[in-house]
Amino acid sequence: RFRFASSCPPNLLPPTAMLRQLGRVATPLARGAPRRMGGNLLLLRMISARVDFGNLKVDANLAALVKDEIAPGTGVDVAAFWASFDKLMSDLGPKNAALLKKRDDLQKKIDEWHLAHKGAPMDMVEYKAFLTDIGYLVPTKTDFTVATSNVDPEIASVPGPQLVCPIDNARFILNAANARWGSLLDALYGTDVISKEGGAEPGKSYNPVRGAKVFDELHKLLDEIFTLSGGSYADATLFSVKDGKLTVSINGSETGLKNAAQFAGFTEEGGAVSSVLLKNNGLHFDIIIDKEHPIGKAHKAGVRDVVAESAMSAIADCEDSVAAVDAEDKITCYRNWNGLMRGTLAASMEKGGKTITRGMNPDRVYTTPSGGTITLPGRVVLLVRNVGFHIYTDAVTHNGEQVPEHFLDAFVTALCSKNDFIERPGLKNTRTGSMYIVKPKMHGPEEVALATELFGATEAAIGLPANTIKMGIMDEERRTSTNLGACMYEAKDRVAFINTGFLDRTGDEIHTSFEAGPFLPKDEIKKQVWIKAYEDNNVDTGIAVKLSGKGQIGKGMWAAPDNMKQMLKEKIGHPMAGANTAWTPSPTAATLHALHYHRCDVFARQEEISKRPMAKVEDILTIPLLSRKLTAEEVQKELDNNIQGLLGYVVRWVGQGVGCSKVPDIHDVQLMEDRATLRISSQHVANWIAHGVTTKEQVMETMYRMASVVDKQNANDPNYVPMSPKFDGIEFQAACDMIFLGKETPNGLTEGTLIRRRREHKAANKTVNVTIEPAPKAMNQ
């Protein structure tokens, strides 16, 4: 899928020479390389034992995982499973390749159109007609109703935060799975929401001054969301239940909830109420009472904490936030998903000098006001994000060729999920019999149609009822944004999730319109008409086809995990925009973002939004081009920002195999970054080089200087290998590839470069059998 060349500066060794110095170059294979690649390409193949299944050769460890850990108990015969995958490759493999070729064909035509109209003002009527003629734009379609059924309420009917977490890290994904409930006391105490002024610093031990400030805020939240008929929670001395109603004692008198229906349940210990369950907009607060606890002793009513229902769902990510480049890495991803679906995943860690094991939280049981029992899930509902159409893997080969990795993801993750459907003791993910696969980076309705066909074949192969597998459509590619209704129509019986994301969407915006001219600086791009139209269109389309109440309309990530005060102020904009979920970078952030869904009735907002005119496709198609001459200072500032962020992420991805982490920006502000950061940054710099806003020489000087900055930022990491002063490391080369080959890389996607360079890094740092596939020199730079 990807075409690569060596992009290293002339003073550096080309990658083949660098690897030969390490003495790890084996005789090149005569065949078996992925197609459509050129230049001084390094194709690294980790040679492993293989198991034959018809036309397939399956990595032996992957085959063993399926046979010994995933399939048992599902009723699926392993030989039949692989036979179905063999048939899938014959049936759908050529379709996948044809759709990727169509992407390239469309891009070529768009490039030629912009070159032919260079310097002329944009004629939107002519531009739309051109895009329609070449099949890029299809007729608008919203005259249908989404028919998806059996969707869990956490996705269909209860708005709330969503986490996205790398699936290859068991501890992280367990944290995400358990983020259904979070301590508001901890979320306030441990973040910048509460100021440090007046001796309220958060030290190593509990600071009662800060604690008092936290309880002041907690009382305000309770007064706002669960208003009492009289008085304030700050003055409460006792919580009790009388005649099925919550009674709160204040200054010798008794009061209750202004809205009695908000009282959802309670627990008792020793005849006294030990927790009070409250409900608003479908979300719960649990007031924990423990007068013997050091914190509870200091509270008039013995309140130790307020636990908020936080993340309703989480995406276990096999894509942008992981660095999975070979069978070894994929096995880790699949094993963790299998553990989540069986309810058995656990992770050990060191804490306070002791080894502790963390597992999945149990459900929570309460007494209802009428004396019955209510059980609430202790965990989020998990979705899994598979990789995009464009990535091929050699974990399995078909007739000697690599297979689309998203085919393998669908088959294996769905087989794991069948463990969630069978009758067995233990924890469950779905309560409605559904599995949720999020599909990223699809281009238009034809690709959604192939994904629908893939899901149907997967269900047939492992014995699931039709439409068990629900689809999430990431609205992050321009051809999907402009045809969103048509995309959803192709999955109308499956779609349960759509969302937007600035970084990838802007990266594709730049690549699609690369030849149109230089783009504005990134901060200015965010303020242009196309981005608002894109965000509005996602909500408008979801509402128009009646996805509301059947699935999620989502918004993107809050990227600054240490800036929770600002998040509390700004991120309410997402539910106010009609989104019934939005991404948060941590469980703590989810607990705080959940407050926004108490303050905003999302379904009422969607009803209001449904009355406005839908966003115009003409606005979405308006290209955010630069129309003024930038100063030298503006150009350098933008380059510094792009390249520092790119290098800061690449060194961890390629050098350490970390796909998602907090990465300091150029001002040392910690940002949660994944691959989308690289796409927008590399495409932006490449675009400016192509249009003369900057030069290759200026970019290289910036890269050398920013590499030194990134080295300093990572100086305390014992596993970090500095890029300077030689600048000859694989990580630095990867950054060069992404920028200097940005125009030639299909759709501006960075995965191919990252996977290639990460495999090179793994080969250089352990003894393995490696083959290097030479490629033509047509793309030498």
Topology (SSEs and partners):
Blueprint lengths: L14 H7 L22 E3 L3 E4 L2 E4 H11 L7 H39 L7 H10 L19 H4 L5 E5 L3 H8 L3 E3 H6 L18 H18 L10 E7 L2 E6 L2 E3 L7 E7 L2 E9 L2 E7 L4 H4 L5 E7 L3 E5 L9 H16 L4 E5 L2 E5 L5 E4 L5 E4 L4 E5 L6 E7 L2 E4 H17 L13 E5 L4 H19 L6 E7 L2 H4 L2 H7 L4 E6 L1 H11 L9 H4 L3 H16 L7 E4 L8 H7 L2 H4 L4 E4 L2 H13 L2 H8 L7 H4 L11 H25 L4 E4 L5 E4 L1 H16 L5 H18 L16 H11 L10 H14 L5 E3 L9
Parallel strand pairs: 4-13, 4-25, 13-18, 18-21, 21-22, 22-23, 23-24, 24-25
Antiparallel strand pairs: 1-28, 2-3, 3-19, 5-12, 6-7, 7-8, 9-10, 10-11, 11-12, 14-15, 16-17, 19-20, 26-27
Helix pairs in contact: 2-10, 3-12, 10-11, 11-12, 12-14, 15-24, 23-24, 23-25, 23-26, 23-27, 24-26, 26-27
Characterise the protein shown here.
The protein has 781 residues and is of the alpha/beta class. The protein contains 27 helices and 28 strands. The chain has an eight-stranded parallel β-barrel with strand order 4-13-18-21-22-23-24-25, surrounded by six helices. Strands 5-12-11-10-9 form a five-stranded antiparallel β-sheet. It has a four-stranded antiparallel β-sheet with strand order 2-3-19-20. It is globular and about 80 Å long. It starts with 14 loop residues before the first helix and ends in a 9-residue tail after the last strand. Residues 1-44 and 767-781 have low confidence and may be disordered.
